[in-house]
Amino acid sequence: MSQWGWACDRGPPPMLHRPSQKPYLGGMHPRQIRGALERAAEAVTGSFIARADATRGRETWRLWRAHWAELERLPPADRMLGVCMYCERYHANTGEWVATPPGLAERLRDPKVVQLTHGVCPICLAGRLDEPLQAADRSLVGDD
After folding, report:
1. Distance between alpha carbon 66 and the CA centroid of its chain, in Å?
2. Cβ-count burial 29-57 (b if 16+ within 10 Å, e if not)
3. Is pLDDT above 50 for 144?
4. What are phi and psi of 72, to 5 degrees?
5. Residue 3, by phi and psi: left (phi above 0), alpha (psi -120 to 50) or beta?
């Protein structure tokens, strides 16, 4: 018998860390189990995020194809596409501002494809207007 209490001299059995300790569940220390559970939770969260991103990407491409079908009916010189100058969302014919699908922004810069007009989407407008208003409010408060 070895110092570990079993017939082999290769060290303790995998589930025993010291001779006085009782075996842990599955041979893992509670900190190891907690770490494994945290990594599993991160993996599941990552897969949900990836799935949502993929779904969102498919939806933006679907919306773009529908919008492009309408633009394609026009002669190339009359194809105008309103794009937000800050975030590159495009203004769809439905009136909403839609995220530009990945990889499309570079192709849209070709004037032979479509003529870009720049504007500001409501989200960027709210963010850009809010900054000067807050600065003006701070200056008014400081004048008292």
Report:
1. 24
2. eeeeeeeeeeeeeeeeeeeeeeeeeeeee
3. no
4. -65, -25
5. alpha
Strand partners, 82: 117
Measure CA 21 to chain center: 45
The closest of 15, 37, 35, 16 to 26, measured between CA atoms, is 15
Out of 8-12, 55-59, 65-69, which region has the weakest mean confidence (pLDDT)?
8-12
Nearest one of 40, 85, 29, 88 to 64, comparing CA atoms: 88
Given a contact cutoff of 8 angstroms between Cβ atoms, the answer to whether 92 and 63 are in contact is yes
Kindly state the tokens that stand for 112: 């032979």
Per-residue pLDDT tens for 14-46?
Answer: 555 555 555 555 677 778 878 888 888 888 887
Mean pLDDT of the chain: 75
49 vs 38, more confident = 38
The separation between the first and the last C-alpha atoms of the chain, rounded to the nearest angstrom, is: 87
Structure tokens at 104: 């499309």
Q: What does the block give as tokens for 99?
A: 């995220």
Q: Quick one: which of 93, 82, 94, 73 has its CA closest to 121?
A: 82
